[in-house]
Each structure stands twice: as C-alpha cells, then as structure tokens.
Amino acid sequence: MRITRRSAAALCVAAALAAAPLAAAVLPSSAAGTDPVGVAARPAEGSTNVQTDGRRIVLGDAPVRMGSAEIKQRSGIGNLDPVRFPAATSAVVVDYTTGTPDGSTAEVDVRAMVKDRWSEWTPAKAGTPTALPGASDLVQLRIVVSAPPTGAKPWVGDLRVQPTDKAATSRMAIQAAPLKSRVFATREGLVGGTTANGHVIVNRDHFVALPSRRGLANNGSGNYSVKVCTTTGTIRCAFEPVWDVGPWNTKDDYWNPSSIREMWKDLPQGRPEAQAAYQNGYNGGKDQFGRTVANPAGIDLADGTFWDALALSNNAWVDATYLWTGDGGRGTVAITSGYLNVRNTPSSTGAIVGMAGKSAQVTVECQVTGQSVSGSQGTSNVWLRVHTGMYVAKAWISAGSFGAC
C-alpha cells in the first residue's frame, strides 16, 4: 500500500480542525498565511460509486466497468460541495491524504466558476498551489478513484482548501471562441455498459467520449459538451454531453495548449495522441497503456449520435468543437430523455440536419421568428440558430434572449 501524507505542520492543522464541523467552508481571499479549512467528505450531486468513511471518500462496491477506453477497472467519482470564498482568488492550495493499495489510484481535481461557467477540471497536487483559469470566488473539488477488477479500495481523506497568491498564472484560459479540431470519430456501442460518469448506455444513446476526465460532465449534465459536425457531403451537426472517457487514452486532453496537457506535451494542441501514434508512430505506435493503436480515434460517439444525428455508416473524420473552452452564446437542451431535432429552417417541418442530446449545451449565433412550438420552456415562436443553416426551437432550450439573425 502507498499512502501519502501531508507535512507535519499540515497535520497539526488537521488535528486542530478535527473537532470542527465540516460544513460549507467560507474562507478568506487569496492572502498568504491563511489556514486551510476542512471540506466535508460528503459526495454531492453527480457522484458515482463512492462511499463516505469518516473523513474519507472511498471507492464503492460497483462491479468492473469498461467504457470507451476499454480498460477493465472499478472506478468512482466523488464531487464535493462547492466552496464559496468571500473574495475572488487566482489560485488555491488543496491538501489531502490518499490511500492507494494494490495498483489503485486516487486523484483530486479542482475547477472554478469563471464568467458564469465552470472551468475545466484541473489536477490538484496535494500541498502545491494550483492556478485557476481566472479569478473566482467559487471552486469545487472532485475525487477520482480507480482500482483493478478485484481487491483494492483507494481513498482520499482530510481534504482542505485555501486561497493563495503564490501560483504562476494559469495557461488554461477561456478563449473568445472555443477550440475546434478535425479528429477521427469512432462508434462506441457498448449498449448496457457503464460510462466513466456512471451513465448506463442505452440503445441509440446520445453522448460522446473524450480521452481525458478534465472535460467529463456529471451524469445527466451537459456543462461539458461538444459540437460535432461531418466534413463531407451534406453537413450535419450533433450537440452532445461528454459522458465517457476514451478512446484509447484517459489523460490526453489534446484540446488544451501543449504546455498544460496532462501527457504528451510535445504534441501540438488539437492533435490526439492516438492519431499521432497511428499516423506517425509516436510513442512507438502505442497508447498510454502500451496497447498498439489500431485507429487514430480522438472521439467516440454513442450510437444515436453516430447513426442518427450525424447519419454516419462508418468511422469518419469530423470537426469537433469543445464548447467549454470558449465564450459565446449558449443554451441547454431541456428535455427529460432522448434528443432534440436540429432543423434546416425555423419550423418543425424543416429537414432534420442534426440532433442535440439531453442536457447538451448548444451554441447560439442569433434568434429568428418561426413556427410556434410548445415545449418544456413554454410556447414560443422563437428559434435559435446554432450553426449556419441549422435551428432549434427555443421552447425546448433553457437560455436567455439573443440578437436577431
């Protein structure tokens, strides 16, 4: 068993806090010397397959799962309640202990509310300042634990967080426009299986997988969504939440600048490691697990996204836009299941040119007046243009108002 511990000074702070209630932490702003405050070991909304054991969060008892990355393991995610600071800070120090027996792993990530949106999850090394992508007074911690098919029960405990002004400026900034790259898309399938965020895959499902947990949305959430468009023939687009991790790798956030990628920092931004391995023999032609890469896939598509939204019959190159990496108009698909049709005119009689999955975010360029439609958001004749020549009824989209097209 490998157990990491804080410094002796930090342990003294832990002892002093042991008797304090672990309610929502209210901390000073980014002033040096602020004592860390405990964060409740209480899995919040979006958590999956984790348990609370005193001051620790431990991997739960769910069976082995194999999602898009096709690695058989037991895994769990524990989202903790967001922490509100009385003043904005540009960095935090997260302190914690871990237990990782028998080849298991335990990690802690942090994200911040920047420009009214959650930033991407960033790994937080214990006791080391972690820069945020922008000044924020609201942060959230996430625990990710994984283990081989049998045996180990990794855990994370004694969590504390504090603002700091002793960190370099983050290179993970929210851009004016989200990153778009051309990547190879494959069909995930795996109906009946379980994704990395705990979603059970159904027939003709709507979601995507990307090879890093940094952009993994909670089950049922679309705060990390992508726009995926075909590149040949009549263009079709899908708007889908990121609910799984893969294909091939699990630490390849290729949409980020090279300097902050978790792995493969010598590859250019937008180029998946699997593509470089397959096309150029990068890393000996292997993925992070030592498997020979059999295709250049940088995104996996659930069956409904693949067959129905994009009308693909074979794996293909697509244009993927990672919506959380940039600003711009957004709306959220407000349906309880399935998908929303994307039309080529602002009318329910328009041809279907794509689909948007449950809870997915959609880009909004402008709005037009069209057919009156009744939906979850009431009755409205407003339609939102989400791509050139593509519209969705605002009656099914949770969003504000936008300028006229």
Short recap of the structure:
By secondary structure, this protein is mainly beta.
Instruction: List how many beta strands DSSP finds.
Output: 25
Low-pLDDT parts are 1-33
What is the helix fraction of residues, given as a range?
Answer: under 10%
Overall pLDDT score:
89
The topology string of helices and strands comes to EHEEEEEEEEEEEEEEHEHEEEEEEEEE
β-sheet strand percentage: 35-45%
Major pleated sheet = 11 strands, antiparallel
Globally, the shape reads globular
Determine the number of helices (DSSP H or I, runs of at least 4 residues): 3
User: N-to-C terminal Cα separation, in Å?
Assistant: 61 Å
Structural class: mainly beta
- Rg for CA atoms: 22 Å
Description:
There is one protein chain. This protein is globular. The N terminus is likely disordered. By secondary structure, the chain is mainly beta. The protein starts with a strand and ends in a 7-residue tail after the last strand. The strands form four sheets. Strands 1, 2, 3, 4, 5, 6, 7, 8, 9, 10 and 11 form an eleven-stranded antiparallel beta sheet that branches.
What features would you highlight for this structure?
six-stranded mixed barrel, 405 residues, 3 helices, mainly beta, eleven-stranded antiparallel β-sheet
Give the secondary structure arrangement, pairings included.
Layout: E1 2-4, H1 8-17, E2 37-38, E3 50-53, E4 56-59, E5 74-79, E6 83-100, E7 105-114, E8 117-118, E9 122-123, E10 129-147, E11 155-163, E12 180-187, E13 208-210, E14 225-230, E15 237-245, H2 273-280, E16 297-301, H3 303-309, E17 316-322, E18 330-333, E19 339-343, E20 352-357, E21 361-363, E22 366-375, E23 378-387, E24 390-393, E25 397-398
Parallel strand pairs: 12-16, 13-15, 15-20
Antiparallel strand pairs: 1-6, 2-11, 3-4, 4-11, 5-10, 6-10, 6-11, 7-8, 7-9, 7-10, 12-17, 13-16, 14-15, 14-17, 18-21, 18-25, 19-20, 22-23, 23-24
